[in-house]
Amino acid sequence: MTGPQRPDPLTAVSLLLLAGVAVLLLVPLFGGPLPSPYLVVGLLLARLVVQILRAQRRPELKRPAAWAFDLLLIGLLLWVAANRG
Known about the structure:
This protein is mostly helical. Helices cover 68% and strands 0% of the residues. The chain has helices spanning 9-26, 37-57, 64-82.
């Protein structure tokens, strides 16, 4: 009998980056300051790079539509950051 499987290191990094984005986006809901859009973009870009690296190791993880959605979200965040007063 085997114990619980641990995620590979790239999966763990991806989940940590996603958790970081989630925390940054939840902080304002509890009365905290708004996060810098550039910080959120940086975390999302890092996660996108990790996802692409994971897909190179395991071809079944290739999800170009999800990557396009991430890029669209990053573009929107950069647009908001550029137009911030």
